[in-house]
Design a protein that fits this description.
Length: 607
């Protein structure tokens, strides 16, 4: 959600801080700021709104040590007084996360004479470190001791003009990594912010505190024990996070899906058989006695799990439950040590999913699998098995290629489970592998429908509500379509299983309520046709995404767009693509901020 960039270098860091914040804009924010060492003082610049405004205000600044931040409000309204960094005397702090005991700290520090000028939980960190510095001369130690008092999730970066060549960072729950180079050392919440200066990354663990100078890095745990962390060479390139010729990152990422799927499925496409080892060396042993699958995820990732449940139960014969991660750990559930717990997250740092995973493990459920797009992320590190989706960086807040690659990974899991349970014949296995190989080509054909979808989107400009319908494994796809439309066009949209129309939603249908239906040519098509007739009879206007051979006639109130081919079990992956395009073009018509929709953030790292 919030973004941190910090630097201790041998030359001017202002351009690095500003460019780093620009690369983190996709995470969502409402204000931005930076603080740098300026002689015997802290120079702080803050603004409400975009990073461009901060960049203009900092154009004349020059410094070699500093911290910067984009804020997504949790405590206090978006305003300059609540924007980071927060200052206490010689100390400046930026913070991602939520400090749960900030009210206790605030009362304690106020009693000591510290004056609070913001509504944030973060300011209590700045004053706490300042209090520690009154008797602890070393900033690194003072920050480490202060962190021992913090309850909640945090990633922080701290500077003190009395030690002008140092940046101290720490993490617990919120992601933070270091970037190492010959000309300085850096920290950020996301690798994309540091690709401009280095690809050598160190991923901090929970409880790590690090000191950065232009020439050195040292890391310890909260108790002061020194630790070493491996240096990873990031596979990302600066070009991978550039917009290129596209109007928005969302459009770019929609059109990157064929390549993202090809990269994700490369491990399958080069083989004639599906092997458990795709998920890790221990997969064969760990999966062989699984009797149930629990999928934990939020938002779009939850929809991928809901779609996969149909595959897992129909093809592999494994009972499957899909839980919203933010709810799972707050109810009493029945633990099952033979259950495979699948955590799905694009970033691998989603706070609710990570907490749900840890709760599941605490219940003795240690058969865990991460499906994630970031190999070094917390969720991947904490699971026994993993599947990296290789979608590449996803910048747009509304997830697209992460979703389709998650579906591809879950289908591979389905095949592995089916094979282990002896429910997959050699002929079926070969057919499914061929379909997976052909999937990027099939998605490319769907993308050719963009001009027709753009025409449809123009009809949505004056709409306030929309209804999405699907049946069977395509109902979660309808849910994903509704989520995309509401996320970026701000049109209120809901999804229902089409058979539920007569149980309530039909009351909303009229000429002003467009109804979008996913209508593949499968065993439920005839049932779906009857549901569509119910809409027509109430004067509703239908927009139907059908397969080429679906016999659904069009009319003045029934608009049909036919996908090039029916793709069987993998049809959900194809049918979500036009829904992504519809949402994108509807947002263009309405003039919303496509990549950075209001009130939302890309990486949800707070509960």
């Amino acid at each position: 959600m919030c973004g941190i960039v910090a630097a201790a270098a041998d030359s001017n860091i202002i351009p690095i801080l500003v460019e780093g914040l620009k690369k983190l804009e996709y995470r969502g924010y409402d204000s931005a700021g930076l603080a740098v060492i300026d002689g015997d003082s802290i120079r702080r610049i803050r603004s409400v709104g975009r990073v461009a405004e901060l960049a203009a205000a900092a154009a004349d600044a020059h410094a070699v040590t500093g911290i910067a931040h984009t804020r997504w409000a949790t405590h206090g309204v978006p305003s300059e007084r609540n924007a980071h960094p927060h200052v206490s005397g010689a100390i400046a702090v930026v913070h991602n996360g939520i400090i749960e005991n900030y009210e206790t700290l605030r009362a304690e520090l106020t009693a000591q004479g510290y004056v609070f000028t913001s509504d944030t939980d973060t300011e209590s960190i700045a004053h706490l470190i300042a209090a520690m510095r009154c008797w602890e001369p070393d900033l690194f130690t003072a920050v480490r001791l202060a962190c021992q008092r913090l309850v909640g999730a945090y990633a922080i970066a701290v500077v003190d003009y009395r030690q002008p060549d140092k940046v101290i960072v720490a993490r617990e729950g919120s992601p933070l990594l270091l970037g190492l180079s010959e000309h300085g050392n850096y920290a950020a919440s996301d690798a994309s912010a540091l690709l401009q200066v280095t690809r050598n990354m160190v991923y901090l663990e929970n409880g790590d505190v690090a000191e950065l100078t232009p020439a050195s890095v040292r890391i310890s745990q909260l108790d002061g024990t020194p630790v070493g962390r491996l240096v990873h060479v990031s596979e990302l390139s600066a070009a991978a996070v550039e917009l290129g010729t596209y109007r928005h990152y969302m459009q770019k990422e929609i059109f990157e899906q064929p390549q993202a799927l090809a990269n994700t499925l490369e491990i399958v496409g080069g083989s004639k058989t599906i092997q458990p080892g795709i998920f890790g060396a221990e997969a064969g042993h760990l999966l062989e006695d699984v009797d149930h699958i629990l999928i934990l995820a939020c938002g779009t990732s939850n929809h991928s799990g809901l779609a996969a449940r149909y595959w897992l139960e129909a093809i592999a014969g494994v009972p499957c439950t899909v839980e919203i991660a933010s709810e799972y750990r707050y109810r009493t559930s029945v633990a099952n040590p033979r259950q495979l717990v699948v955590a799905i997250s694009q970033s691998g740092e989603t706070a609710d999913t990570l907490a749900a995973l840890r709760h599941a493990k605490a219940l003795g459920q240690n058969k865990t699998l991460a499906i994630c797009n970031v190999p070094e992320s917390a969720i991947v590190r904490e699971c026994a098995l993993r599947f990296i989706t290789r979608a590449g960086p996803e910048i747009g807040v509304a997830s697209t290629k992460a979703f389709t690659t998650q579906l591809a990974a879950l289908f591979v899991l389905t095949l592995v489970m089916a094979k282990l349970r002896q429910r997959l014949s050699g002929e079926q296995e070969s057919t499914y592998i061929d379909q997976l190989r052909h999937l990027p080509v099939a998605v490319n054909k769907v993308l050719e429908l963009e001009p027709a979808i753009e025409t449809w989107a123009k009809r949505f400009a004056d709409k306030q509500h929309a209804l999405f319908l699907g049946r069977g494994r395509h109902f979660p796809i309808a849910m994903e379509g509704a989520l995309k439309l509401k996320e970026i066009s701000y049109i209120h949209a809901e999804a229902y299983p089409a058979g539920e129309l007569k149980h309530g939603p039909l009351a909303l249908v009229d000429a002003n309520m467009p109804v979008i239906s996913v209508a593949p040519n499968d065993m439920l098509l005839d049932k779906l046709k009857s549901n569509l007739k119910e809409v027509q009879a109430r004067g509703g206007e239908l927009y139907v995404f059908a397969d080429a051979d679906s016999e659904i006639p069009g009319s003045e109130s029934v608009h049909i767009l036919r996908l090039p081919e029916h793709y069987g079990e993998l049809s959900p992956i194809l049918h979500v693509v036009p829904l992504q395009l519809l949402s994108y073009h509807a947002a263009l018509v309405k003039g919303t901020d496509v990549d950075k929709p209001r009130n939302l953030a890309k990486s949800v790292t707070v509960e």
